[in-house]
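Record type: monomer structure entry
Structure origin: computed from sequence
Chain ID: A
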Amino acid sequence: MNPTVITQYLPEHLHELATSFSLPEEMLKNHVDLVVLILESKSIAEKTEKQSWFDLYPMMNAEQLNKLREILTREKQKLAEIEEKYQQKQEEIKKKYEKAFSSPVYQQHQATIRAAETAKRVEEQEEADALLNQI
């Protein structure tokens, strides 16, 4: 595959990935959206699977191409929806914990713990000094 054809038709973020496949030039020219969908597909994960779809292209009719396009477009939309829900949930959790950890009660609790730790270290140091003085 001629790299200039890839750079001419495909988005830049797919150039390197596309060079690892044998892409039908006609597919790049006439169905670049389908090439992008195949390359970006999460369900067609393995390189051999992706290559199989590129190899099948010359044998597929318009109806089959449209069906493949619909399936991969639906997959992309569903994944985008899941990602959006995940991001929203992540923001909710982040806000919840930011609020909890920045509250005056939490800050006071942390200060109490630090004071107790410091007092314990001083006590242990005094005990160690007392033992050394006895020797």
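Annotation 1: Helices lie at 3-9, 15-18, 25-30, 32-40, 47-56, 62-102, 104-134.
Annotation 2: The chain has a mean pLDDT of 90.
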